[in-house]
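help with this.
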Amino acid sequence: MFCCKCGTQNPDDANYCHDCGSSLYREAAKHSSDQSTRDEVSRQVETPQDEEQRRLIDELLPIDQRPKECHACGRRNNLHGWDFGLGKKSSSARAWGGTALSIAISAVTIPLIGAGGLQLPGKSTRYQVLRLRLVLCDSCWDGKVKYGLHPWWRKATQLGYTEFFDAKGLKKLKPKRK
């Protein structure tokens, strides 16, 4: 089971994410047969972004995850795994803080030493990222990792998660903390 907020893999019987503490939607829905629990899950969805995540969960959870069998053939031995992510751009912004600081420093250093410098604004992009793991057996892995074999790949890309992150790229991402 993967947390929909931060992407951390959790045990199947967990009710909350072990990394970020978020309630795991699948467990709440799976164990709820009464209307009150369903209402509680519905109340947790407050923003359009949360609504989008809930829709994503509803569409991806029925797709088989098969964490301990080859995603291509279903074998359960001699398995190899690769972490990766699929992202969807949620926002872009220019970071003007460094530019403002360089202008302020230049205003002081130019009259004093005759030199200054201007730092142009950087660009920061935020992504909603699905953290996934591809599992292949020895026979299906021919030296090339075929990420498109992951059961969620097709549906996730149809939902707009088209930015690919390999394991190194995932490590560079900074999680959004509330």
Summary: The CA atoms of residues 60 and 152 lie 7 Å apart.
